[in-house]
# Entry
Amino acid sequence: MDARLYHAHTLISTLHPAPHAGALVEITGLMPKTTPVKRYFTQADLAAEFALELNANGYSSFVNTNPRDKFSSFEADVPYVTALALDLQPERVPIDTVLTNLTNARLPPSVVGISGFGYHAYLLVEPCETMRAKSVWERLCKWTVSDPIFSVNRIMRCAGTANLKRKPPAWCYLTGVDATRRYTVDFVEQRMNAVGAPEARKESDGIRVPEDPGMDLLALRKRISEQPGGEGILLIMDTGERNAYSEKQISRSEADWAVICALVRANASDEVIHWLYEKTNIRLLKYHSAGKRYLHRTIEAARRATAEKPDRRPVRSPDLPPTPRGNTTRSIVGYDPS
# Structure
């Protein structure tokens, strides 16, 4: 086994020690302007080989932090959480500082590696319900100054592959693995309390809506699908995720803006938009934490932005000849300027 395959296999088998049909390994290949590639495995060695093959063909290769229970990559497809990942950038925080703080907090990482241009660290945890783990993961990200991405379907760049984001590319590799360091999420939360880590964002008070949306949602979806980029908007609405198939990260507010503008163009009333944001997965975007004032203001701005531009050209009666150039006197029916 060469070094690249060794690093890829070690990371994958540590994150997924016993993959099976209900706990799949997912390998994702991303390349600009190219359809993402996703494959699912029940064997770590085959997953590692495929990650390297994708990378050799110009794709950035990623592995799922937590298992999938179907051939799909949304948060709903994660049956439970087994690892909390940290993506650390040296320009924001020295990795030595993070590792020292974690060790002092009695949370030394289970896995540490170089991501090419930054650092990755993982805390292995006993299987935990996704929403419970997510709130603790958020606090861990804030405290360590990690990239603030704690979606349970998080993918991370695979060790043993090249990071192709810059030129020249840089290798991703492991610097330390101790799979015996496995924590409970309750213990991680206790340690976050002990060190005074910031709290997870709280869910804001929502808008009271009826059980029925008061509109034909199938017809609404059809109108959205007919818009440019409509299928992508429907994907965001169905999953509550900003950019499920893209390496490029967009903000939650940008995703909300795209969705609400599409709904406005599809003739959805404010009440229908409120209902969708209360009853469907898009509530998981920024509305989940920002609340109803944020939603009201976004809807108002979207209605202004998507309103038809008034036609400011002068309206001319078809019965009148055009005004000659240089003549500033406009003819009026029934009026003789002479």
About this structure: The chain has eleven helices and eleven strands. The two ends are 100 Å apart (CA to CA). Residues 132 and 337 are 82 Å apart (CA to CA).
